Amino acid sequence: MNLRLYRHLLARTLRGKRLLGASALASVAGIAAWVSMAGIDTEHTADIYRTITASVPAATLSIALLIVATATMRDERDGGTLPYVFLTPMSATAFAISSSAAALTAALTVAVIGWIPGWVGSWIMTGSWDVAVPALALYGIAAVGYAAAFVPLGYLFDRSLIIGLAYIFVWEGILATVVAGITPSSIWRIAMSAYADVDELPGEALDMLGTVEPGKWGAIATIVVLVGLGTSVLGWSVRTRDAV
């Protein structure tokens, strides 16, 4: 991995307004859970947090991660600076690994920031810091999975945001809900399977899984494979489309 390229891409991806906007979007679920728990007896507040965490971030967090991950390489291409990046002597593999690592770091940063409001809110409403801790697995695995898929998307397609939104809302939101056979292809449900394995989720939250079985190790293994595939596709793309 080229550390100089990694630092450059990370700093550019997480610059000012993008970091602020993506973090705000990722925080919507936590704030919504906080508001929803207000005035509810302590016995039910934890389940309210878990139900909202299992559903709302499927749209808000995933969009925030789409914005961040696709920008990692798209900024360089759109800004005309990609040829200068390629002047640095490195292999296509090193380029892909550095770019993917920067995107994963950026996505995890946004995910953790987005998780914090719900964590604080759950503590205020329930008196326990532990209620929201398992959700960190959901946010973290989702961040890695979406970043792995969306980095090569941002590099290969000019309309990567539209394609990514189609995946989130049409493929994950509609098709994976009604067609059981494609449910396991949903990154959100893969992350949810880990969440369901490390916490006791209410029925409304478990319904989000569809045909996917709870299991943290299966989720981690799937995401590791996805990271490998995403990095390989990016490396192949760089190798065939640009001289590196």
How is this structure best described in words?
The chain has helices spanning 3-13, 16-26, 28-37, 42-55, 60-78, 82-85, 92-126, 135-156, 160-178, 187-198, 203-206, 216-241. The chain has one domain (3-239). It is mostly helical. It starts with a helix and ends with a helix.
- Number of spatially distinct domains: 1
The assigned structural class equals mainly alpha
User: Roughly how many Å is the radius of gyration?
Assistant: 18 Å
DSSP, total strands: 0
Q: Average pLDDT across residues?
A: 89
Distance between the termini: 14 Å
Element pattern in H and E: HHHHHHHHHHHH
Q: Regions with pLDDT < 50 over 5+ consecutive residues?
A: none
Proportion of beta-strand residues:
under 5%
How does the major sheet shape up?
Answer: none
User: Could you estimate the helical fraction of the residues in percent?
Assistant: over 70%
- What's the overall geometry? globular
Work out the helix count: 12
